[in-house]
Amino acid sequence: MADANAPAKKSDLGVRTISAVVMLAIAISAVVAGGIWFQGFIAAVALITLVEFVMLVIKATDNVPYRIAAIIAGIVYIGLAAVLLAQMTPFLIVMTIGAVVAVDVGAYFAGRSIGGPKIAPSISPSKTWAGLFGGILGASLWLALQIVIADPLTKLLGTATQQAQTYDSTMLAIEGTNLLAFILAGGAIIAVLAQSGDFLESWLKRKAGVKDSSKLIPGHGGFFDRIDGLIPVSILFGSVVAASL
Question: 35: left (phi > 0), else alpha (psi -120 to 50), else beta?
Fold first, then answer.
C-alpha cells in the first residue's frame, strides 16, 4: 500500500507529449517524402528495434543456443515487418498504423473504465479482457472508417494509381462477404495480434528484468516499446495485400 504522506510522483506527461509530437512529425515527414526517405526511416527504426531486442535477449538468458535461436527469430520477425511496411502505399501505412493506435486507445479506455480480470497478469499486469474487447472495438471502428473514406480520399490524393490499385484490391478481397462480419473479424484479428506483440515484448522484458527496452525516447522507453504491436500487424497487412495484388 502506498504511503498517503509520500510526495506525489512527478508527472512525465510534458516530456511524453513532446516526444510523441516529435516522433509523429518525423514519421509523417518520412511518409510524405516517400521513396528512399521513407524506406531509410523504416530501416533505421527496424535496426534500432532489433538492437534493443538483441540486448533484451542477452539479458534474459545466459544459454548461448537460446540466444542464437532468439536473435535469428528476431531478425526474421522484425526484418519481415520492416520489408513489408516499407513497400506499402501511404493509404496502407495509414490503415496499418491507425489500426494499431486504435487498438491501444480502445484497450486503454476500456481497461481503465471497466477493469476486470487480467489476461496474463504474470506477463503484463495491466492487460485486461475488457481492454482486449475495447481494442477490438477500436480496430473495428478504424476499419469501418477506412472503408467509408478510402475511395473519396484516394481520388482526392490522386498520387496514385498505385493507391487506387491498392484500394481496389483491398475491396475486391472482401467483395461478396458480409461487411459487418468482415470488419468485426478484422478488428478482432488486429487487436489480438497487436496485443500478442505487446505480450511478447513484456514477457521478454520480464525475463530480462527491465522496465523498458531502452531509454532512447524520453518518457516512452525504447523503439521496441513503441512498435511492439505494430510489428505483427504490419506482417499481417503486408502479407494479405501482397497476396491479393
Answer: left
CB 23 within 8 Å of CB 226: yes
For the record, the C-alpha cell of 220 comes out as 516512452
* CA–CA distance, 238 with 236 (Å, rounded to integer): 6
Q: What does the chain come to in residues?
A: 245
Instruction: Report pLDDT digits (tens) over 56-89.
Output: 999 999 999 999 999 999 999 999 999 999 988 8
Tens of pLDDT, residue by residue over 104-155, are 999 988 988 888 889 988 888 888 899 999 999 999 999 888 877 665 555 5
Write the DSSP symbol of residue 123.
T
H helices present in the chain, as ranges: 13-33, 35-60, 64-86, 90-114, 129-157, 161-174, 179-208, 223-227, 230-244
- Asked whether the CA dihedral 196, 21, 219, 5 is positive or negative, the reply is negative
DSSP 63: -
Helix axes 161-174, 129-157, angle to 10 degrees: 130
pTM: 0.82
